[in-house]
């Protein structure tokens, strides 16, 4: 870890996560009865719980809406779940105002181009290792683990 990243991490007071491709591997399974199935990594979830116990809340900002997302967010006890979001930077800005924080206090983890506006403003921008190229280039840190396979726990 370089000195710049260590300094940035020291300012973090909020973890903001994309969901699909970060907390999951990005795959979606659909059943014959309209149900949607996603795979979540238990280690990622416990990492979110531990971070919360340490005083740093987590919010999830997802471009997709799903009851599965709601269930997982509730299980993890996240501070907020925002779904069906097309402008994640606008949502995160509102969260920051409510919490009286600034962009330098945000660590955001993403994987796709919809995450770039937040990543470009976040104090710590993290890309999961299997993120798209533009996101990898915008990151202060790239995880060793893939999305849905321990990347969030690594963060």
Percent range for β-strand residues:
15-25%
Low-confidence segments: none
Structural class: alpha/beta
- State the share of residues found in helices, binned by percent: 25-40%
- Sheet with most strands: strand arrangement: 5-4-1-6-7-8
Number of strands: 8
Number of helices: 7
What's the alpha carbon Rg, rounded to whole Å?
14 Å
Give a topology summary.
Blueprint: H1 3-10, E1 14-17, E2 29-30, E3 36-37, H2 42-53, E4 58-61, H3 67-76, E5 80-82, H4 88-99, E6 106-110, H5 116-119, E7 124-127, H6 133-138, E8 141-142, H7 151-154
Parallel strand pairs: 1-4, 1-6, 4-5, 6-7, 7-8
Antiparallel strand pairs: 2-3
How does this structure look, described?
- The protein is an alpha/beta fold.
- 36% of the residues lie in helices and 17% in strands.
- The chain is built from 7 helices and 8 strands.
- It has helices at residues 3-10, 42-53, 67-76, 88-99, 116-119, 133-138, 151-154; strands at 14-17, 29-30, 36-37, 58-61, 80-82, 106-110, 124-127, 141-142.
- A 6-stranded parallel sheet has the order 5-4-1-6-7-8, with helices on both faces. A two-stranded antiparallel sheet has the order 2-3.
- Strand 2 and strand 3 form a beta hairpin.
- The protein is globular and about 50 Å long.
- The mean pLDDT is 96.
Task: Provide key terms for this protein.
globular; two-stranded antiparallel ribbon; 7 helices; 155 residues
Summary of the model, kept short:
The protein is an alpha/beta fold. The chain is built from seven helices and eight strands.
């Amino acid at each position: 870890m370089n000195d710049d990243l260590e300094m940035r991490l020291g300012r973090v007071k909020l973890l903001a996560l994309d969901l699909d491709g970060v907390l999951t591997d990005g795959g979606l399974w659909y059943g014959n009865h309209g149900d949607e199935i996603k795979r979540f990594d238990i280690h990622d979830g416990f990492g979110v719980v531990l971070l919360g116990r340490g005083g740093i809340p987590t919010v999830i900002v997802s471009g997709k809406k799903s009851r599965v997302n709601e269930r997982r967010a509730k299980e993890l006890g996240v501070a907020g779940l925002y779904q069906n979001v097309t402008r994640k930077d606008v949502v995160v800005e509102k969260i920051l105002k409510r919490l009286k924080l600034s962009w330098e206090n945000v660590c955001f983890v993403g994987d796709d181009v919809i995450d770039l506006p937040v990543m470009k403003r976040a104090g710590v921008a993290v890309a999961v290792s299997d993120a798209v190229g533009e996101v990898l280039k915008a990151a202060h840190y790239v995880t060793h683990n893939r999305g849905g396979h321990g990347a969030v726990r690594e963060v």
